[in-house]
From TrEMBL:
Listed Pfam families: Dimerisation, Methyltransf_2
Alphabetically ordered keywords of this record: Methyltransferase, S-adenosyl-L-methionine, Transferase
Domain O-methyltransferase C-terminal: 120-328
Lineage of source species: Bacteria, Bacillati, Actinomycetota, Actinomycetes, Kitasatosporales
Name of the molecule in the record: Uncharacterized protein
Gene Ontology BP, a term: methylation
């Protein structure tokens, strides 16, 4: 007869087995999520229950295999299955629709871009050697690969970064202290979503969007000539790794310093070379010593950055060290509520 203790030990062991197996099939869960987006399932499902056969007809998929995909996702909390086997949206699956205000479908596709399925299996090499795998796989640096060899992934990347920026622009703009600031430069600021929000909140401030030529050419309409803030905004093309030829009271670097530290140092020093003494430099990023729950995401994104550019996310103390190496004076760190993973404002001043 099996003792109660043995039964308890077996139950505990099986619970651990289940947790480990759930982690081991994580790539399959990600693939299922990406497959649903690619097939257009979020657009084919409604708030009212829909037969799998109807969803299949709308997505040009085989009903049997589509049902298996929906079942796998429903078990992960994406979509809701009714008692009669039909499916409808829930709060989580609705975020994957084209008309979702957050644009998260683009982030889902970016995190599962084709190159990632070649890079993740070589994570052990990246960890052992401490370097990016994308150059090893494709023979060129990550951004050259995107622009030259993977234009569709590049488009998805741009849309994903826009989605990430849109998720937090309002909260970040509220948290930034612009008292006494007359000019703001958003360095590597993408299409200018954050800068647009700042200019809308602060009519006395002039802004400069500084990024690669192709990026600023696609700036949000409000920042362009003739746009709502066009008379208060300059669009300056350039590469921050070479120089930052912009004068401002406040320089913003949002989600930029995740590449190798030598690149981050170059950017910070390039800003210092142009900025006047006392100018503020504000890094906006998640940190690696945050709450454990959000670290489940950021710690994996940290490895994602290792694979593509050899980069990393930073702790608060690592940011302090980075600023010190760049000759800047760290003045404080502040969490931005209402963001996930929680963004932090890490601020320094140009000495002198």
């Amino acid at each position: 007869m099996v003792s109660v203790k043995a039964q308890d030990d077996q139950a505990a062991a099986m619970e651990l087995v289940g947790k480990l197996e759930h982690l081991a099939v994580g790539a399959g869960v990600a693939a299922a999520l990406q497959a649903a987006v690619k097939l257009g399932v979020p657009e084919a499902v409604g708030d009212d229950p829909v037969e799998v056969s109807e969803i299949a007809a709308r997505t040009d998929a085989v009903p049997g295999t589509l049902g298996r995909l929906l079942r796998a996702l429903e078990r992960q909390g994406v979509f809701e299955e009714t008692s009669d086997g039909r499916y409808r949206h829930n709060a989580l699956s609705r975020l994957l629709r084209d008309d979702s205000p957050y644009g998260l479908k683009h982030l889902v596709l970016w995190l599962g871009a084709p190159w990632t399925w070649q890079a993740w299996p070589r994570l052990d090499e990246a960890v052992r050697d401490g370097k990016a795998m994308v150059p090893e796989i494709f023979g060129k640096d990550f951004y050259s690969y995107l622009t030259q060899d993977a234009p569709e992934s590049a488009r998805v990347f741009d849309k994903a970064m826009t989605a990430v920026s849109s998720l937090s622009s309002r909260q970040v703009s509220t948290a930034i202290d612009l008292r006494g600031v007359g000019s703001v430069a958003d360095v590597a600021g993408g299409q200018g979503h954050l800068l647009r929000t700042l200019l809308a909140r602060h009519p006395e401030v002039h802004g400069t969007l500084f990024d690669l030529e192709a990026t600023v050419a696609d700036a949000v309409p409000e920042l362009c000539a003739g746009g709502e803030f066009g008379d208060r905004c300059s669009l300056v093309p350039g590469d921050c790794l070479n120089e930052v030829p912009v004068k401002a009271d406040l320089y913003i670097l949002k989600n930029i310093l995740d590449w190798p530290d030598e690149n981050s140092l170059r950017v910070l020093k390039n800003i210092s070379a142009t900025a006047d003494p006392g100018a503020r430099i504000l890094v906006i990023d998640s940190v690696m010593d945050a709450a454990p729950e959000e670290m489940r995401v950021t710690s994996v994104i940290d490895l994602f950055m290792l694979l593509n550019v050899g980069g990393q996310r930073h702790t608060r103390s690592e940011f302090e060290e980075l600023f010190s190496r760049a000759g800047l004076d760290l003045t404080g760190t502040e969490a931005v509520s209402g963001t996930f993973p929680t963004l932090h404002l890490v601020e320094a001043t140009v000495p002198g």
